[in-house]
Amino acid sequence: MGIYAMDFALKFNHSIFSTPYPPKPSPKCRFLTARCSLPLSSDGAATGLAERPWKVADARLVLEDGSIWRAKSFGASGTRVGEVVFNTSLTGYQEILTDPSYAGQFVLMTNPHIGNTGVNFDDDESRQCFLAGLVIRCLSIKTSNWRCVETLGDYLAERNVMGIYDVDTRAITRRLRQDGSLIGVLSTEQSRSDDELLEMSRSWDIVGIDLISGVTCNAPYEWVDETKSEWDFNSDGRDRDTYRVIAYDFGIKHNILRRLASYGCKITVVPSTWPAAETLKLKPDGVLFSNGPGDPSAVPYAVETVKEILGKVPVFGICMGHQLLGQALGGKTFKMKFGHHGGNHPVRNLRNGRVEISAQNHNYAVDPASLPEGVEVTHVNLNDGSCAGLAYPALSIMSLQYHPEASPGPHDSDCAFREFIELMESTKQAA
C-alpha cells in the first residue's frame, strides 16, 4: 500500500482579522505548511475517504449546436430527446409540468429557484405530465407550503419525467434567444458517448409531427368536477342561462374547463378526431377548440373538422385552436424563433386599447397577412408584434393565441370567457 503525500500552503494576512485605529503596518505574510498522508489502493485511488455529502454531476444536456452542459439529475433517469424552450414564469411550475402543450419539449425555467413549494393534488392541469423533461438552475432542498404532499423530484420520478439542475440556465436561455429553439438530448446514461447523444439531437425534429394524438382524451366525457371557491373568482355565470359547449381536446387544460363552468357552461369534452357531424348533432350553443402541442400543419384532420363547424355555431379558439382557425380560414402559420412561454407577455386589445399581461405557451403563430378579407386581428403581442387574437363576426368566430385561464399567470384576460358567453347569447337570440 503506497502513501499519498499532499502538501499545501495556507497563506493569511493578520491585518484582515484586526481593526486597529490607526491601522498598523501590515506584518509580513506568514505561511503554514501541513502534511497529510492517505493510503492508496492498487489503482492509485485514495482509500479511507468518506462519501461526498453532495451530489456530483451525473447528467448531460447535449444540444444540436454541439454544446454539452453537465448537470445533476433528479426525477427519472435514462435518455430523452426533445425541443428545448424557456419559460419566464416566476411561479406555477406544477401547472407548467402538466400543460399538454409542452409535449415533446424540455422546459427550461428562467426563474432560478424551483421546487420550494413542492407539489399537490389540486394544481395539475391535466391527467399527467406530457413534457419531455425539466431544466432548472437550483433545486430547492426543502419544501415550505401547507398544501405540499411530496417533493418535485419524487413527483417527476413517479411520472417518469427527467429533470436536471445545477446547470447555467441563463447561458442556455441566451443561446436559445440568439439561435432559436434547439433540439437537445438529456441523458444520465454514462455508457452513451457525447457524439452519440449529439447525433440523436441532430437526427430528430419536432416540426411536422402530430403531437395532439398523444395528449387528447380517448373518448367523450362530461366535465362534472365542481369548481371550488378558490377557482371561482368570477361568478357572473351563475345568474345566466346554461350554455351547452363542446370542447375539442387538443391538449386542454383543466382550468379552461373550470372557467367555462364558472360562466355557466355545461361542457362535453371530445377527442381531437371527433367528427364535426357528431358535434353538430348535439346542437351545442358553442364549440371550443383548445390549446395543444406542436405544429398545426401536422394535423390536417383537425383543420378539416374546424372548417366543417365554422359558420354553423359560435366558436372560440385558444392557442392551438387559434392556429387551426387561422388555417381553416385560409391563412398560414409559421414557426417562431423561440416561441412565447411565460406568464408576463403584454398584449394589446386593438378594439378597446386595453393592455393585458398574459400567459402564453406556443411556438407557432398565424400570419395575419395571409388571412382573407373580413377576418379582424383583435390582439397584438407587444413584444414582437405577432398576431395574438382574431375575430370574424360574420361567422361568430373569436380566438386568442394565449391562455385566458392563466394557470399560472394573471387574470387580465379572463374577460375572454365572458365574451364567448355573449357571442353564444347573441347568436341564440338572433336565431
TrEMBL record:
Keywords: Amino-acid biosynthesis, Arginine biosynthesis, ATP-binding, Glutamine amidotransferase, Ligase, Nucleotide-binding, Pyrimidine biosynthesis
Catalytic activity: L-glutamine + H2O = L-glutamate + NH4(+)
SUPFAM superfamilies according to UniProt: Carbamoyl phosphate synthetase, small subunit N-terminal domain, Class I glutamine amidotransferase-like
GO molecular function ontology, one term from the record: ATP binding
Domain Carbamoyl-phosphate synthase small subunit N-terminal: 57-187
Listed GO CC annotations: carbamoyl-phosphate synthase complex
Similarity comment: family membership: Belongs to the CarA family.
Oligomeric and partner information: Heterodimer composed of 2 chains; the small (or glutamine) chain promotes the hydrolysis of glutamine to ammonia, which is used by the large (or ammonia) chain to synthesize carbamoyl phosphate.
Xref: NCBIfam families: CPSaseIIsmall, PRK12838.1
Database matches in HAMAP family: CPSase_S_chain
Protein's name according to its UniProt entry: Carbamoyl phosphate synthase small chain, chloroplastic
Organism: Gossypium laxum
